[in-house]
Amino acid sequence: MIAESALNLLEFHKLLRVIATYSHSEASHKAVLDILPLDSRDDIERRLAQVDEIRRLAQEGNPLRLSGFSDISSLLAQIRPEGAILEPRELTLFISFLIILADISSQLASREDLPFLRKLTNPLTGFPDILKILERSIDREGNILESASLALSELRGQVRRLQGRIRKKLEEMMKDDRISLFLQDTFITERSGRWVIPVRMDAKGQVAGVVHDVSRSGETAFIEPLAIIGLSNELENLIADQKAEEIRILRNICSGIRIIADDMATQYKIILFLDLLNCIAKFADQLQMWTPEINDSGIIRLAGAIHPLLFLTFQGIEGKTRSDHEVVPLDLHLGGTDTVMVITGSNAGGKTIAIKTIGLLLLMALSGMPVPADPSSSFPLVHDLLIDIGDEQSIENSLSTFSAHISNISEILKKANAKSLVLIDELGTGTDPDEGAALACAVLKEIRNSSALLFATTHLTDIKGFVHRTKGMLNASMEFDQKTLTPLYRLRTGEPGQSHALEIARRYGLPDGIIDSAKGMLGGIKVEFDNLIADLNAKRAEYENALSELRQQRIEVEETKRQLEQELSEAESNRKEMISKAYREASEIVAETKRQMHALLDEIKKRDKMKSRSAIKSVEAKQEEIVQRLKKYDAAEYGTPSIDAIKEGDILFVRSLGYDVSVVGIDEKHNRLRVSTGSMEIAVPFSDIGFKRGKSMSVRTGVTSLDKLDDAVSTKINLVGLRVDEALSRLEPFLNHASLANLSVVTVIHGFGTGRLSKAVREHLDSHPLIKGYRSGELSEGGAGVTVVTLQ
Is this prediction's pTM over 0.85? Predict the structure, then answer.
């Protein structure tokens, strides 16, 4: 279990106080403040999932229906003894709670996509019967309503009427000249529950009645006249009956609550926990947090991590621009072969904030909270967080700064194991640098051997070298701008940093003479080492800039390549479309030419039958050639589905129609499909189909042929439901194919309707060169709804 001292050092409770501001009750506010890291990965991931589902509701514009509610746990405890009664104002606290229960239950009842919230809130019933009784009996101010019972309503009616009689009687008396002479004022009031009138003290004996009170001045006596005493006594009896009825109502309500007290306590705890989760969700939304991964592999990975309290602090600074106070994200990875990271760098460069960010975000993740880091971030399931941060010298305990650090580190060494994460700030400081460095290196080695994860900060050069030489340890540094002599607050893994103490001292006003003197006192090896690190950092920055430029150039090259490939693809698509269009236009020309040839050949048919037939066959052959080329092009371009894979209900493309249709039947014997197109069904050959292309009837192009281009041609065409122009455009190719197939009789189905379609069809047939004659259908053929056509 993580120690309370660790939570305090990382300001976890301060973070909880911020989160608790979103609570809807004092009880849930306290519950948030009591949040602690969880020990079970299942518990952590369950809470993360519950928070995530609450955030999803808010993103949908349907936030969790929580509102203000009171702590009813103490009231439930009071009501448990048999016969116990709560005051009406106390019972009003149940109303708001029960309304929340009903709202939450209703909101989540049908949300199968929120399994974790559904499971959590599954026991919620809302207790609608009790809520109905409470709302009927007590208002929000704690007054018992007349609607609570019929008896109460009748009693209150009697009280009002009797009070009216008393007031009327008193008003009449005050108007009586024999009494009005002795009145101090003309108002009617109550004293001790009795109706009285104000009489001058010197004349109180002149008005028969009972004195119930005297004014502070002593000049007015409040007298209940004898004439209304009987009525007042009757009124008191009614009020007593009314009070008894109110108590009976309260007793019945409390008895009903007592029966369900255990269930209500359980549901109250669920609402309390929901409010806790809602607080976490709202805070996560404010900082745009992400749900982290929890792992058992002992690896911590942070990407784009920020310290939430630091972010809120900078967010609250007024008069400063965002760039003046921007939290620099933290990126790091530790675990596996490397379990120790030592961070070096300048003073005020962000080393301590870095390890505090690591610790606080780990606590948040282990508590089932989203974290202010990218979703790729991952945290190990640790059971102990061991920390030595800050100056904990103690006069009372005779501890210096160094002694306090060593005391803390001793405890850390006793507890560190594979399920621990250790944070040590300013390792090796507070004593002689050489001895401090030696102790620090030994501590690092010991913690490395314990398999715990360790993040430490230091300024000691000897530690940097030791870490560099030791397997399983990593150097890291906080970046520093050599030109402006300012920290950049970015963590860089793999290389040590410099303290830049002299530069920082100069920046904060130390005289140049002292700075120069200090430089002269530095050992030559130290200066050379610092210069070497500075040169390495400069070269690294240069290489990174060059690498960044190369990456940018690569992105630009890939973008250019993508654009060229897209343009090439579009050009190829246009070329194919142009070829397809050309073939289709050629097919149209041939079809039209054939029609014209039929008309011309009909005139010369009697002169030379052999030549006319030869011409027709020549034109038909040319059309068939173009049609076959179109089929071949379509099949090569889009492919043809396997016959065995086709089933009823499939959507396929019919090349001769130019759009997608639905399969309604399969005739394997004749190699045909029966398909539905618009309001009619037609038969098409297997050779005329292709894969679905997403083209509907309204976007077809080219020649629209009603039937197939095979030898078998349908003898009927159904034009019912079509407009005249669309019907005639379908009728024409049908007649052409019927003529090519040497059919002698075909049937055109046009229905009855208004008669416009049948009239247009017959007018079209009147002048058609392929038509020998036509007639209305017999009753068995469809009557006047069809036209039977005889071909030449």
Answer: no
